[in-house]
Specification:
Elements lengths: L3 H9 L12 H13 L2 E2 L6 E2 L2 H128 L13
Antiparallel strand pairs: 1-2
Helix pairs in contact: 2-3
Length: 192
């Protein structure tokens, strides 16, 4: 039921333009519901008596505030949607960057693996080539040393043969030398 004190309490909330200050639409709707709920019933009827001016004033005030609150709510919804879209884009960018980075890491790993495999092959081939060249060089040196040994062997035999002849002819020539002491002794090419 509405009484004079309730009207005073509502009137205290009015600002200079006759609007309810400091209240939002929800508060105004609660006041309307209170007015209707506390209204005096009409005799022999389910209808109630309410102060039409008071209810209309509250409804008009709610309607006048409703667009402002709707604009604020729409702005908040738009801000929320923009924020969610921004966060989604950032999340997608982070995921894309992570995918690209992981692909690069996999490629680098593959490249490193391939490089290591190629390096092992090159080293193995180089070591095999070095062994082959070493064996060839050893064989070449052995062949040259064998040829040189043969030449040296012939030379030693020739020198020994020449020395043997010299020793055999030395006593005879000493006699000849004592007769011609200033003449040097020469060998024939065939003696060697």
């Amino acid at each position: 039921m509405t009484d004079f004190h309730d009207d005073l309490e509502i009137d205290e909330d009015l600002d200079d333009q006759g609007h309810y200050a400091g209240t939002d639409v929800e508060t105004l709707l609660h006041r309307v519901a209170d007015l209707v709920g506390n209204a005096r019933p009409m005799p022999l009827s389910a209808s109630v008596m309410i102060n039409r001016d008071e209810v209309l004033e509250l409804v008009e005030e709610g309607l006048s505030r409703l667009p402002e609150e709707l604009r604020a709510a729409r702005w908040l919804l738009r801000e929320r949607e923009e924020f969610l879209a921004k966060v989604q884009r950032e999340g997608d960018d982070i995921l894309d960057a992570a995918r690209v980075r992981s692909e690069r890491m996999v490629q680098r790993t593959e490249v490193v693996r391939n490089a290591q495999h190629t390096a092992r092959q090159v080293i193995d081939e180089a070591e095999a080539e070095a062994r082959r060249l070493k064996h060839e060089a050893e064989d070449f040196c052995d062949q040259k040393l064998a040829q040189f040994e043969i030449v040296l062997d012939r030379t030693i035999r020739t020198v020994q043969a020449g020395r043997s002849r010299l020793q055999a002819s030395l006593p005879e020539e000493e006699d000849d030398r004592s007769a011609n002491p200033g003449e040097p002794e020469f060998f024939d090419q065939d003696d060697l």
